[in-house]
Amino acid sequence: xxxxxxxxxxxxxxxxxxxxxxxxxxxxxxxxxxxxxxxxxxxxxxxxxxxxxxxxxxxxxxxxxxxxxxxxxxxxxxxxxxxxxxxxxxxxxxxxxxxxxxxxxxxxxxxxxxxxxxxxxxxxxxxxxxxxxxxxxxxxxxxxxxxxxxxxxxxx
Length: 156
Hints:
By secondary structure, the protein is an alpha+beta fold. It has helices spanning 5-18, 24-38, 74-82, 134-149, and strands spanning 44-51, 54-62, 68-70, 86-88, 106-114, 117-126. The mean pLDDT is 94.
């Protein structure tokens, strides 16, 4: 799917923001802040990093969140287990959904890879049912690719 001009611009903004900085923690912190500022209709944007069999909370914007999520559990854990991005129109209908914030209604999760090894996920929540589209998914996947290209990744 073609990435919309909005998401092309968002990825360009991220690339500019990260120019000269390769630190993974700093870059994910700034990436979550940029998503928070630029995306409308969201209530959480951030990262979880893979440690063994669980995801652990990383930099984010929004309300306090679950600190640990088992691989295979909820939308984030499913993204890691399947290796595929998740676009969920109604999280309450998602089997095993973990309600870190009961207000969240839809979610998009993109797994992050260092080579062939998953290192975590980018997670964005919205209080609106069906907030995210296939165009949003393509744009967020491009955003994640930009982040990965500008960062020294865990495990290197």
